[in-house]
Fold this sequence. Notes:
CATH class of the domain at 36-90: Mainly Alpha
Radius of gyration: 15 Å
Distance between the termini: 52 Å
Helix content: over 70%
Largest sheet: none
Number of strands: 0
Order of helices and strands: HHHH
Amino acid sequence: MDWPSPIDLLGxxxxxxxxxxxxxxxxxxxxTRQTRDISLVMWLAFCAGVLLWTVYGFLxxxxxxxxxxxxxxxxxxxxxxxxxxxxxxx
Length: 90
């Protein structure tokens, strides 16, 4: 097995930081269930973009892109689900 290249490590570090930045917002959203100030259109576009980045990373075998975007999609998707459930109350 080959060691990851410095470029792959850089990509993995960037992805890890980006993904980790969602954790506080997800925890707050789950705790408060408040999503009134979150734009549905923006969040739908963001989740779609992350999904496309994941597929792209898979197709070009850029594993740092795939490995970091899957949890990002899960975290952003969590907020999206809460937002969609709250639509009738906003």
